Amino acid sequence: MRPKTLTCRVGAGLSIAGDGVRAAHRAARDARDELGGAEVDLAFLFLSAEHHEDAEEALAAASEQLDAASLIGCVAEGVVGRDRELEHGPGAVVWAATLPGSLIETFHAVAFGTDEGVAVGGLPPLDDADLVTLLVDPFTFPASGFLTELTESEGDIPVVGGLAAGPGGPDAQALFLDDQVLTDGAVGVVLRGVRVSTVVSQGCAPVGADSVITSAEENVVYELAGKPALERLHGELRSMQPEQQQLAAQGGLLAGLVIDENRSEYGRGDYLMRGLLDVDEESGALTIGEAVRVGQTLRFHVRDARSADDDLREALAQVMADGDRAAGALLFTCNGRGTNMFSEPDHDAQTVADAIHGEALAGFFCAGEIGPVGGRPFLHGFTATLAVFLEN
What we know:
By secondary structure, this protein is α+β, with helices and mostly antiparallel strands.
């Protein structure tokens, strides 16, 4: 007889076996063993691109071992498990949780054309969700537009996840939904009745001061605090430290947009980071990668490895500040992070494992990460997004 538990418990397993079926089986066995015989309410399976050809058999092997009530997952460029990041080479990661008292609903969302544009079908009701996890095929599902429409129709929804590039081309994707391997759209799970905190670490440090946008149209900023936007930018650049100026010159300069203005002051997590796409020397306008509005607050930021490290640690510390115990976490990190950003391997995985005081961690390297800023879900780049599950 299986023991009863009233506490959220999470286990994670990782295997680097070259055979995808064997790797999935081992990872699933190890994840399940950490639950001490409790039933698996929800599981995630992440396979590296090297195991794409074995996806169907690997899913079957993991499912047999887990006997999970619900399972989703994908094939990705690289996978994250426990305190390791497998950016290259074969790997299988399984995350298994028992979530007593929760309501779990998995889904397959697909995009299709209509006379009015693109619509999305297959999405269940999301009201009152404690967490929505979304794994996306970037070639067949318009993630950014979907998130914008979702906010307009549903309000603030805690969505985390990422774009799964898999082997890296169209028609070569694999998404997992219970016992099915799907090749398009997005798979996800809606969770209610769980204690979970979301984390979005955009890896940036602020420079200069906040400025209010006083003239703008769509994603073009003409004036900041009553001055031409470019003039304001030049002033901020002159005030930067030499190291920051070098980072800005190397393309590390971004515009941080405050999403929720209802605060007396703004911290790292209040800004949505977007790149500077164009500079118009004649008009003094800046084009950025997000629509803006007059009255919105903007602050310039720089991105580098040190800022990314500080930002992730600070964000995790805020989640754990109340003394809660973490049962485990899901991590969706950009494929531009890892050893492409940090001098040592496994940076994000080890940082998260240290913060949650355990290795019940799983995720993958994304071609775009999904997470909320100011309560609204956005598609990010060079970001680490997380869902941290608390014990009770």
